[in-house]
Write a structure and sequence with these properties.
The chain has 13 helices and 21 strands. The radius of gyration is 24 Å and the shape is globular. It is of the alpha+beta class and 555 residues long. Helix 5 (155-164) runs antiparallel to helix 8 (198-204). The chain folds into two domains: 3-153 and 207-279 and 287-323, Rossmann fold (3-Layer(aba) Sandwich), CATH 3.40.50; 341-553, Jelly Rolls, CATH 2.60.120.
Length: 555
């Protein structure tokens, strides 16, 4: 079917329950009267070229593609209340769409990032028309997006989202802003006052997992979901951990057997802004095999779910992973993998693991009584973000960490060269036994693949804010000089450390500007400007055996 065989209707007015009209553009085939519909609800303009291109492909394949401006955005009426307005608006749109004369009553959904969340937020309301979702880079709840699992503010994400504010995105304005200066502003609460962004201030005024975040979370609601979902993310996506949460929730708790059994997950070697792409970024080239034709994948899913065409997708395992290092795709039957051997790699040193040039060692052998490693964390000179799961492309991906590892406030622990390949696929965590001179501080960790030429490639990372060490709802200060156990989630990864490579763990107290700086004072992080230097002590003894827990897959 050619593009000329697609009927386009622009700016259809979709009524919400409160009378507000939302603008939707429809692309549908001329030759068929009633077809399944696929819906994208966006805050980024429903004329965005990527989604218009997808809409043409979907229409040419026999679907009515509908792209709608969310409430208060671009051509839609009303006031945008980020996230909260998408629950009922999403449901009302699905009900309207399923009743249109050109729709056969069946709906699928699509979209990336915020558009992934607009798909899953209405899911517990169970529109009878919605049969299949494709959330890409979505979250389970916004606390996980803004504060992650460790209670530390994802500063880049909060500021970037706060900046787009208004009715339109002001994308060019964000590209021109002096972001380094913006990130450094204190107090954090008023850092965006120059453009008056209430949502940013709301984020900072709710640092705990309180009723605000719970009002639009999927936690506790999975049993109300009835439609299966195909989740898509990347190992370097800043929402990869949230996608794994929703996949597990859908797969194990959804309200119907079909929704549980048919839900799937695809994870590639991508960052947030390049999901599906084989475009080279960072310091590793994963090759052309890393690319996925996302519209074609959608159509294969929709054909199975909305048209009843046997595409073979239901006979495939529920998890499709790209194994970095080996640079191959693999299908698995569950997550985490049932054959995983969780293995502790312990921290060792003679008391001088500071920097790439220190004496830190990583080993499966538990430590004896060894001297602790000490470094000083100064929030005026934080460790810079370099690679990883940042929202922004320039700070994310498989970057060479050696410039960071030269700092004395970064502890570096490395194995000897590996005699054989070691695959790490699954959730990675670090247990640190540490003390601080501050009443509140942060600890960070990064897992690294060290190549024979010395290149130290970022795999995954994590952070814990000390006051949130035991609870995200009930923070508590620490006693300076007392040893505490900290558990850091480094999220998920899949990487084959090839023979001759080395496994490395970095430990520090900052990752800025991906995360806001802990000012080490114990004062309110949103309103405080006072900074203190903290002495950090990391222990690795028989009593306090700090370690990274690696999900090793037998080869």
């Amino acid at each position: 079917m050619a593009a000329t065989d697609v009927r386009i209707e622009l700016d259809l007015k979709v009524p919400m329950r409160d009378g507000v009209l939302l603008s939707a553009d429809v692309y549908r085939p001329l030759s068929v009267e009633r077809v399944p519909a696929v819906l994208c609800r966006t805050i980024y303009d429903n004329q965005e070229p990527r989604y218009v291109e997808w809409a043409y492909r979907f229409a040419q394949a026999g679907y009515a593609a509908v792209i709608q401006d969310c409430r208060g955005r671009y051509d839609s009426e009303g006031v945008w209340t980020p996230y909260l307005c998408e629950i009922e608006d999403g449901f009302d749109t699905q009900q309207w769409l399923g009743a249109q004369p050109w729709c056969d009553g069946q709906i699928g959904t699509f979209g990336i990032s915020y558009l992934g969340f607009t798909q899953i937020l209405p899911a517990p309301l169970r529109s009878p028309h919605t049969k299949a979702l494709v959330p890409i880079a979505n979250q389970e709840d916004n606390y996980g997006l803004i504060y992650c699992d460790g209670g530390a503010l994802q500063l880049q994400t909060a500021m970037h989202f706060g900046w787009i504010g208004g009715r339109t995105c002001q994308t060019q304005s964000w590209q021109l802003v002096d972001r380094a200066r913006l990130y450094a502003r204190l107090p954090l609460l008023s850092a965006l006052d120059v453009i008056d962004r209430p949502i940013y201030r709301t984020f900072l005024q709710h640092p705990t997992f309180d009723e605000y975040w719970k009002s639009y979370t999927l936690k506790g609601k999975y049993e109300q979901v009835q439609a299966p979902a195909l989740f898509i993310t990347g190992w370097y996506d800043n929402l990869v951990h949230e996608v794994f949460k929703t996949f597990r929730g859908w797969r194990h708790e959804a309200g119907t057997e079909a929704a549980r059994a048919q839900t799937k997950l695809l994870v590639g070697p991508w960052t947030h802004t390049l999901i599906g792409s084989a475009e080279h970024f960072g310091d590793v080239d994963f090759g052309p095999g890393a690319a996925v034709d996302l519209p074609a994948l959608h159509l294969r899913w929709y054909d199975q779910r909305l048209k009843g065409i046997d595409t073979g997708i239901d006979q495939e395992g529920p998890v499709r992973l790209f194994v970095m290092g080996a640079n191959t795709w693999r299908t698995e039957q569950e997550w985490p993998l049932a054959r995983t051997r969780y293995t502790r790699y312990y921290l060792h040193s003679r008391g001088r693991a500071n920097s790439l040039f220190g004496d830190g060692v990583l080993s499966p052998t538990p430590p004896d009584d060894e001297p602790a490693d000490i470094f000083w964390y100064d929030p005026r000179d934080p460790v810079p973000t370099l690679g990883g799961q940042s929202l922004l492309l320039e700070d994310s991906g498989p970057r060479d960490r050696r410039p960071v590892e030269r700092r004395d406030d970064v502890l570096v622990y490395t194995t000897p060269p590996l005699a054989e390949d070691v695959e790490v696929t699954g959730p990675v965590s670090v247990t640190l036994y540490a003390e601080s001179s501050a009443p509140d501080t942060d600890f960070t960790a990064t897992l690294v693949d060290v190549h024979p030429n010395g290149k130290a490639i970022h795999l995954c990372e994590g952070i814990v804010r000390a006051r949130f060490r035991d609870s995200l709802e009930h923070p508590a200060p620490i006693e300076p000089g007392q040893v505490y156990e900290y558990t850091l989630s480094l999220w998920e990864t899949s990487n084959r450390f090839l023979a001759g490579h080395r496994i490395r763990l970095e430990v520090s107290s900052s990752n800025f500007p991906r995360f806001s700086r802990n000012l080490n004072t114990g004062e309110d992080q949103a309103t405080s400007t006072r900074m203190e230097v903290a002495q950090q002590t990391v222990l690795h003894t028989g009593r306090f055996p700090s370690f990274v827990l690696l999900p090793i897959i037998p080869t």
